[in-house]
Amino acid sequence: MKLSARDANRYFGHPEADRTGMLIYGPDAMRVALKRQELIAALIGPQGEEEMRLTRIPGAELRKDKARLHDAIKEVSFFPGPRVAFVEDTNDTAAPAVLAALEDWAPGDAQIVVTAGQLKASSKIRKAFETHNNAYAVGIYNDPPSREEIEADLKAAGLKEIEHEAMTDLANLARELDPGDFRQTCEKLALYKFKDDLPVTSGDVAACAPASTEAALDDVLNIVAEGRAQELGPVLRKLEAQGVNPVLLLISATRHFRALYAAAADPGGASAGIARMRPPIFGPRRDRMVRQASGWGAVKLEQALSGLTDTDLQLRSAGQRAPEMALVERLFLRLAMLARRGG
């Protein structure tokens, strides 16, 4: 039987003990593996593998040994409890063995859990599970996680009390990260809040979220956007000594000011505009960018973007002879002074 993605997410955590089994397939091996882990853990419990109630079979081996899966579902463990025969990374070369096991399965046998990559509708294994009256088939695709999935990951990590804004940040983060990285972030957040009974805040999320590759440039961008011209020279000297390319500075500044312009021009206001940003912006950094966008306003930000574009063209010009860092520093000074002027 086919199982919808919504029903499958509930089923993975609370599977039915009397089912023949389940096929989980999809193009993203990580997503498929995480769902398979959740299902098997729910079927046999945390001690199931230690008690030898889980049999793992590489799908490729079933082509040579067609009886291996059949034998695995009929075996009886020394320990009492439900059993699982897990066939990993299979395809239609293993179809004869899988179909035979489905046909011979009887109540009391181990449940059959099969994982696969992308399977066509004509796949023999997929058809067998979809048409079986006591087994399920579900496709796992790269869709954004549902609220229910996000809450399940948070609950599994032991996170219960979460502020509304922090929950919004986590939902945005879940859409940007792959499922494995998001679960690791939840676990990191749970450790960060260990013995801390206060609700999770946006600041907590920001502290635990994967670092942006452009975090090292934030200082100079904030100095420019907040009009702190007197601080600009020393910071640029430091970045230059670290080998930061002037072109990278210009690209980063252009991206930052485009984000501020999008926020300032948003019909719902700067806060709504920042909330729509991808990748998402968290906690104190988000609040800071909201203040910057509100302080600049759309008109001045248009002027800033015009100056950034002109300097970019100048740097790319074949006849350009001035030092690149000097051009960028002069532009940043002009922008910092513009930030201090009234609207």
Automatic annotation (TrEMBL):
Superkingdom classification of source: Bacteria
Protein family membership: Belongs to the DNA polymerase HolA subunit family.
GO molecular-function terms, A-Z: DNA binding; DNA-directed DNA polymerase activity
Record-given protein name: DNA-directed DNA polymerase
GO cellular component: DNA polymerase III complex
Catalytic reactions of this protein: DNA(n) + a 2'-deoxyribonucleoside 5'-triphosphate = DNA(n+1) + diphosphate
GO biological process: DNA-templated DNA replication
The entry's keywords: DNA replication, DNA-directed DNA polymerase, Nucleotidyltransferase, Transferase
InterPro entries recorded: DNA_pol3_clamp-load_cplx_C (IPR008921), DNA_polIII_delta (IPR005790), P-loop_NTPase (IPR027417)
EC id: 2.7.7.7
Organism of origin: Shimia marina
